[in-house]
From TrEMBL:
Keywords: Gluconate utilization, Oxidoreductase. This is Decarboxylating 6-phosphogluconate dehydrogenase. It comes from Nocardioides humilatus. It comes from the Bacteria. One of its GO terms (biological process) is D-gluconate metabolic process. NCBIfam families: gnd_rel, PRK09599.1. The keyword Magnesium does not apply.
Length: 293
């Protein structure tokens, strides 16, 4: 399979490598010429055989919308655009309808795996018509975790289904991280227990709270037991807000996820101790920037 990939940052660059390792021909474009295989979108499109498949890994919002508008002018009937960024699901219907005016297909794909996806593979949640999905399936198979039937799911044929599923995934992630962070703050504060990093490490085997997030937190605590090198500040990248908005629109009670979102807002007003653990985990799985203490 030949595929174009736009956006070669922390996620996109590793995805290019993983697809190439699986035997796919990947033509990558990035605004940073040191990362790019070609010097323009036009050159990327020209390098691909028809039907052309172009995968976007660019920031959500205007950067994605403007890139899709540019591709609409460069691609033709039977070609396909895949949005693998963290776009809001409501944007997908608009983008799909716009591309359809020229007979260009559209697939939205939520991608989870962070900076570890190159080694471990990526969980892929995608939405779109069966015929469009089939065109990009070799890339999905290359990117998903090996030796498992999980990690790859067609969430629905309606544009936005994949990004909606990824949005809820990230909302759940917010709440899980908040629970770990609050537990860490309490354990770190009291005098009755010692060796907090190893307490968390002991939970990684045989307990009901074990998870990859817990593994990442243990790594961070072993390197900096009290997280003294971090400020208690954590950004939100949008998905948590959108999850809460969707819950309100559908009258679904979501107290844990909404509280975890509001806790991040609090962290921007004062140095929040528990938020140091959130910052540490976000840095661990996604390479997100942290503020040093």
């Amino acid at each position: 399979m030949d595929i174009g990939l736009i956006g070669l940052g922390k996620m996109g660059g590793n995805m290019r490598t993983r697809m190439r390792d699986a035997g796919l021909t990947v033509v990558g474009y990035d605004r940073n010429p040191e990362l790019s295989d070609v010097d323009s979108l036009e050159a990327l499109v020209d390098a691909l055989p028809s039907p052309k498949v172009v995968w976007l890994m660019v920031p959500a919002g205007d950067p994605t919308r403007s890139t899709i508008a540019d591709l609409k002018e460069l691609l033709g009937e039977g070609d396909l655009v895949v949005d693998g960024g963290n776009s809001k699901y409501t944007d997908d219907a608009i983008n799909a309808a716009s591309l359809a005016e020229k007979g260009i297909g559209f697939v939205d794909c939520g991608v989870s795996g962070g900076v570890w996806g190159l080694t471990n593979g990526y969980a892929l949640m995608y939405g779109g018509a069966e015929a469009d999905v089939a065109k990009v399936m070799p890339a999905f198979e290359a990117l998903k975790p090996a030796d498992t039937t999980d990690g790859l799911v067609h969430c629905g044929t309606t544009p936005g289904a994949g990004h909606f599923a990824k949005m809820v995934h990230n909302g759940i992630e917010y709440a899980m991280m908040q629970a770990y962070a609050e537990g860490w703050e309490l354990l770190d504060k009291v005098d009755i227990v010692d060796n907090v990093p190893e307490i968390f490490a002991s939970w990684r085997t045989g307990t009901v709270v074990r998870s990859w997030l817990l593994d990442l937190l243990v790594d961070q605590l072993r390197a900096d037991e009290h997280l003294d090198q971090l400020k208690g500040y954590a950004d939100d990248s949008g998905e948590g807000r959108w999850t809460v908005e969707a819950a309100i629109e559908n009258a679904v009670p979501m107290p844990a996820i909404s509280a975890s979102l509001f806790a991040r807002f609090v962290s921007r007003q004062e140095d929040d101790v528990a938020m140091k653990a959130i910052a540490a985990m976000r840095n661990g799985f996604g390479g997100h920037a942290v503020k040093k203490g």
